[in-house]
Amino acid sequence: MSTRRTDDSQERIFVLDPMRRIERAVHRELEDLMSRTGYSAVRVPHLNVFAHVPRGTGIRMSELAERMQLTRGAVTQLVSYLEAHGFLERVPDPADGRAVLVRPTEAANRGYELGRARLAEIEARWEERVGQQRWRTFKAVLEEVARSQEARIEDRI
């Protein structure tokens, strides 16, 4: 668990803990939506693939593996599964004839739109719960922290 004892013996809950709980709850809601709208083959790991595959242009497998922080073998398995179910296709990379791009099919694009609409509904519920000003502040702070952390990692590379 991501809690730690502090000097005063109280457990500390790290900010990533509620972020992970939010992500799990949203994933469950999206997975349920996919199941009820004809995308029962799509599970959370597949949602993560779609989150990283640009619509239209596609992405190289090696870049997808890097973005998802998975091995190429793991990404190949996920892509093969989604390809077999008609959600992704592999096409030659016009910039490099030896390389292959992975891109969503029309079926995947329809599911993508359903997912985006649900995410917008979820965010609207959150904004209604906490209020417009707090929601704007939350999003701005989250973006600031994300950029700061990304820059910190990039500086080390």
| C-alpha geometry | globular
**CATH level-two architecture of the domain at 14-117:** Orthogonal Bundle
Structural class: alpha+beta
> Which CATH top level class of the domain at 14-117 fits?
Mainly Alpha
Strand tally, please? Answer: 5
The strands making up the biggest β-sheet line up spatially as 3-5-4
**CATH topology category name of the domain at 14-117:** Arc Repressor Mutant, subunit A
Any idea what the radius of gyration is? 19 Å
Written account of the structure:
This protein has 157 residues and is of the alpha+beta class. The chain has a domain of 104 residues: Arc Repressor Mutant, subunit A. 64% of the residues lie in helices and 15% in strands. The protein contains six helices and five strands; from the N terminus they run ββααβααββαα. A three-stranded antiparallel β-sheet has the order 3-5-4. A hairpin with a 5-residue loop joins strand 1 and strand 2. The chain is globular, with a radius of gyration of 19 Å. The two termini are 29 Å apart. The mean pLDDT is 91.
Keywords:
157 residues, alpha+beta, two-stranded antiparallel ribbon, 64% helix, globular
